[in-house]
Amino acid sequence: MKGRRIITIVVTFIAGLYFLLDFIVPPTMPGVSFQAVVADWKPGSVSVRSGTSAPILYQLISKNNLRPQLLSSQRDTLGKPKLTAILLREAGVGAKVTVRIGPFVAAHIINPQSVSLADGTQLSLSPGQKWVTGAGSDPIATPTTGQPMSIEQVDGIVVSKDPGSIDFISRSGRVTRSLGDHTAVIKLARNGPGGEVSVDDLKVGDTAQIGPATTFVDNRDTAAQFNTVITTMAFGIGLLSLGMTHTRILVQRKTGWYLSIFFFFAVAMGVIAGVGKYEDPGTAARATSDFFVLRVIASVNSAIFSLLAFYMAAAAYRAFRVKTAEAALMMTSALIVMLGQTPFGSYLTSWMGEQYSALWLPNIAGWILRVPNTSVFRGLTFGVMLGAIATALRYWFSMEKSVSGGE
Question: Phi-psi bin for 328: left (phi > 0), alpha (psi -120 to 50), beta?
């Protein structure tokens, strides 16, 4: 038992460290990042070779709404391999990638290796490339007009790449910053943290930040899969424990034994709905799954949330009774946020004029939701994730007596 406790503490600490750093560590390395207004940019390029053919150079820039897209084989939530779009910095030299251009519609067929679009753009296959249908990977023997298609180079090896550069306008003047192999480009938004983009997605006048990407940003999917495994094991063990408990109640005919029958019925209903969910539409299994999900589970959820509305109203009444300074602060914030979401709130403060727009109720309400509320929500989410991981591990290691069959 002591060893299990130590494992639980260590794993929970590692997971908590990840979630903490995911909240507070920026997407680029502090101290070496650079932020300014974009004046111009040079797109990146990558050379990809398939087999013994010569490498093909791709300029990662949109021309006629067609930009070469880098794809990598990754597993989805069901564990199946799936081609997923990646950024240039995620495609290291020697990595295996698939390059796709399109989809587009051919207006004229020049020959089996070349087509032209409606605007006159001519596209031709290079050695190692092939025509595929739409945005999929089904090969096309002969292109036809009016058919959505793409150009694809499958299982290519990255030979070399040029991440490109960005011209910034800063206080010291116009400067050019070349991007490195692991440089992240963050397009900053006016009302949010922004997100990582390709160089080609930037526009003149955008505010961008560049710098080396942090390790935790690149491993979010791995951490999410780790959390999924622990949670799934905990759910499985919890389901087995509940099955054993309700079986014992039925055998011993304890008080309320008939309620255990509904438990097994709900489990069977959930299994049928889950298995049939991934069947093709129109099949009997899919129809049965849709019936349980849409007609039974959805109705039960609606009934439960309808009952919860009364408890929420009662809780709000008790919380909004102004007896302390904290309650008064919460009451004032709630009133501002509610009024700020209505036209009446705009009417109350719009008379102050544009020079005092920061004091308008909608703007104050937006600031409350965007800054203090977000920080509190992140803190709550961090605590909830730690508690969920620790509880799941305790279930997994049978450290909870109620789950392991004890009294």
Answer: alpha
Helix (H, G, I), strand (E, B) or coil at 150: strand
Rounded distance between C-alpha atoms, residue 173 and residue 301, angstroms: 59
- Comparing CA positions, the residue from 13, 105, 121 lying closest to residue 389 is 13
What is the chain's pLDDT, residue by residue, as a tens digit (407 residues)? Answer: 567 667 666 766 666 666 665 666 667 777 788 888 888 888 888 999 988 888 989 988 876 668 888 888 876 655 667 788 888 888 888 889 989 988 888 888 888 888 888 888 888 888 888 888 877 767 887 888 888 888 888 888 999 998 889 999 877 788 888 888 888 888 887 555 567 888 888 888 888 888 888 766 666 666 666 767 777 777 777 788 888 888 988 888 888 888 888 888 888 888 888 888 877 788 888 888 888 888 888 888 888 888 887 887 787 777 667 777 877 887 888 888 888 878 877 778 777 777 777 778 888 888 888 778 877 877 787 777 777 777 777 776 666 655 444 44
Nearest 10 degrees: CA dihedral of 218, 224, 227, 228?
-150
Backbone angles phi, psi at 213, to 5 degrees: -70, 145
Residues facing 184 on adjacent strands: 211
Query: In b/e form, how buried is each residue of 202-217, taking b as 16+ CB within 10 angstroms?
Result: beeebbbbbbebbebe
Amino acid at 119: D
Distance separating the N- and C-terminal Cα atoms of the chain: 18
Question: Within the chain, how many helices (H) and strands (E) appear?
Answer: 11, 16
Name residues whose C-beta falls within 8 Å of residue 196's C-beta, 6 or more positions apart in sequence.
Answer: 27, 87, 184, 185, 186, 187, 213
- Give the Cα-Cα-Cα angle 64, 67, 72 (nearest 5 degrees): 160
Domain positions in the chain are: 27-43+164-212, 45-162, 221-404
Listed in order, strand segments (DSSP E) in 34-147 are 34-42, 45-49, 56-59, 69-75, 81-85, 96-105, 108-111, 114-116, 122-124, 130-133
Which residue in this structure is represented by tokens 């039960």?
A: 300
The two three-digit tokens of residue 296, written as one number: 């039974």
The string over 29-42, giving b where at least 16 C-beta atoms fall within 10 Å of a residue's C-beta and e elsewhere, is beeebeebebbebb
φ, ψ for residue 115 (rounded to 5)? -140, 165
